[in-house]
């Protein structure tokens, strides 16, 4: 089995967005605290990164009908 088939499809998608490191920070925080509510700063950073990516993609493909 090659390394490409072992990779999580979610991780592959997140790498394309440029937000993978923020995703890892959220996961680490939740693992450390056991409470996602304690990690809201990291969640907000990740959400903002993903929103920026979505907006960039929307602009990129806006002319495609």
Automatic annotation (TrEMBL):
Which key words tag this protein in UniProt?
A: Disulfide bond
What are the CHCH domain coordinates in residue numbering?
A: 19-52
Alphabetical GO CC annotations of the entry are: mitochondrial intermembrane space
Q: Which GO terms describe its biological process?
A: mitochondrial respiratory chain complex IV assembly
InterPro entries (UniProt xref): CHCH (IPR010625), Coa4-like (IPR039870), Cys_alpha_HP_mot_SF (IPR009069)
Pfam families per the UniProt record, alphabetical: CHCH
Spell out the protein name for this chain: Cytochrome c oxidase assembly factor 4 homolog, mitochondrial
> Which gene name belongs to this protein?
LOC108042723
């Amino acid at each position: 089995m090659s390394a490409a088939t072992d990779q999580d499809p979610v991780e592959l998608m997140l790498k394309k967005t440029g937000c993978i490191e923020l995703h890892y920070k959220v996961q680490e925080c939740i693992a450390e605290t056991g409470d996602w509510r304690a990690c809201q700063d990291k969640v907000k950073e990740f959400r903002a990164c993903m929103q920026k990516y979505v907006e960039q993609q929307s602009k990129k493909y806006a002319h495609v009908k």
